[in-house]
Specification:
By secondary structure, the protein is an alpha/beta fold. 46% of the residues lie in helices and 14% in strands.
């Protein structure tokens, strides 16, 4: 949703703009161009491969920092203490990470069951699959993947690992295909998609990081600054929606002194043309809010 992102952030020459999920530098390169390569563009990513790819695209101008975006408040306090004019969250797994099959994010490529966005992290999908209880596995797959066959998939995982350790994405895909009835497998997306999504979220604590990152970002915005979040599944979108609403004084847990006003009353969705060109965008939802306080 590049066009919509640029329209909402409207980056200007000399501003401070943060891309919290810089990935391969796709959004950031357009932001930097709109900024006329002036001001400060800060790119965050916990994946060193992503930062290398972004540096190739962006050159030496922007500041690229290896960090989880949950630390954005601390980082901006050091790098841009007067605050940011625009902050972007493009959530979920990046296209390069999916394309790097050896990282284990994709159910279409046989690889070790890893799924760490930060390759130095201790928890992997393989550890979850082979060590968590059936109840824990079922809860992860059901909650984070919204998978109706979660209990059955967890049961089949336990049965499989009693015979041999599950170490690769293909082994897990085979278990999932065996667990989901044939009729259900013929409908909708790939049968393994929801389980892989759930494991990735659990490995990287994506929802916890999102909650912390949004609060940190809201606190780091200048008055009039814009925050944009693009989510790809309902769990992410719910957190973005509720957080923005709370900080606008309109949510279930509204703050006493609102810091935001909602720019998008309803999420912006990708066009049919964009979905045709990039099927991964089909579930994207963009929400934006503006800071109404000059906090710094």
């Amino acid at each position: 949703m590049l066009t919509e992102t640029l329209a909402q952030l409207n980056p200007q020459k000399g501003q401070v703009v943060v891309d919290c999920t810089i990935g391969g530098g796709g959004h950031a390169s357009h932001l930097w161009q709109k900024m006329e390569q002036t001001g400060t563009l800060i790119g965050l990513d916990q994946d060193p491969q992503a930062l290398l790819a972004a540096r190739e695209v962006l050159g030496q101008g922007p500041q690229l920092i290896r960090s989880n975006f949950r630390e954005i408040g601390k980082i901006l306090g050091e790098v841009a203490p007067r605050g940011a004019d625009g902050i972007l969250f493009d959530l979920g797994v990046s296209s390069p990470q999916l394309d790097w099959g050896e990282r284990g994010f994709s159910y279409r490529v046989d690889a070790p069951l890893d799924m760490r966005m930060d390759p130095d992290g201790e928890l992997t999908a393989e550890l979850i699959i082979n060590n968590y209880s059936q109840r824990e596995l079922s809860k992860i797959i059901s909650t984070y993947g919204e998978e109706r066959w979660a209990s059955r998939i967890a049961q089949f995982i336990i049965q499989k690992r009693e015979r041999e350790r599950i170490e690769t994405t293909q082994q897990l895909v085979d278990v999932i295909l065996a667990a989901i009835p044939a009729g259900a497998r013929r409908r909708g997306p790939h049968p393994a998609r929801r389980t892989f999504q759930a494991l990735r979220i659990a490995v990287n604590d994506e929802l916890g990081a999102l909650e912390a990152g949004l609060v940190g970002a809201i606190g780091a915005l200048k008055g009039g600054g814009i925050i944009v979040a693009i989510s790809y599944h309902s769990l992410e979108d719910r957190i973005v929606k509720q957080t923005f609403a709370n900080w606008a004084g309109r949510g279930h847990e509204p703050v006493a002194k609102p810091r935001l006003e909602l720019v998008t009353k309803k999420p912006l969705l990708p066009t049919e043309n964009e979905i045709e060109q990039n099927p991964r965008a089909r579930s994207a939802k963009l929400r934006a809010a503006r800071c109404v306080l000059n906090q710094r």
